[in-house]
Amino acid sequence: MKQKCIKQQAFPELKKELLYLAAQINQINNLELFVIRKRQAAILKAKIGHLPQQEKHAELELEFLAIENILNQKKTTLLPEIKNALKDLLKNTVTTLVTHKIKDKDSYKENIDKQLAITLSKHIEKYSNLAINHPINISELDLPNSSFLLKQKDCYIHLISRLGLEHCVKALISAEADLSMQNKYGCTVLQLATRNGHTEIAIALIKAEADLNIQDKECIFDKIFHYAWKILKPTKRHSL
User: Which of 23, 155, 173, 219 lies deepest, with the highest CB count within 10 Å?
Assistant: First the structure.
């Protein structure tokens, strides 16, 4: 009886929180504030999800849907800021890679990877996954001294996968990055990791349920299962 009373009290409280959040979202005028409100919305969504399935539950879900629509509208107005946030992250990444002239067999690669992963984690803490999920090619950002990184017309997530930056890729997975995003040639993060022999990254992506069925534009990876097996077969100690 007591539990039922608590659940009945939860409805008006949640409705009040939704109304307050809707008012706060309408006042969003910068990216950092948007991220704060987006996280608050996620917490409210979880609370609504724990309510019993009934009419009041449905009513709250409709009100939350209205909030999500407002957030999407605000996100559109903030796209220039999102692009700038991504550009700052890429500038730092490219500067680090160029300075150390990273290669697949570079003995300093792991330290560079960890250094970049720390930078990435700070970026995600500040901007959530908004910028890293922004589908813009690095070549469109006019970054200095980065020509050797731009051959594949990658987005940010493709660059770090192709270079085998395992810690960075795992940070992206934790941030729920869009693993199905394709670069100019239609390649996904998993396809690039597999093609370049980055076993640990491929395993992490498969565990994260990256889509194995996406094809690149030239259908080079139309047999992605074959490539995945080829890279995973020598490492029988790994279990999926």
Answer: 155
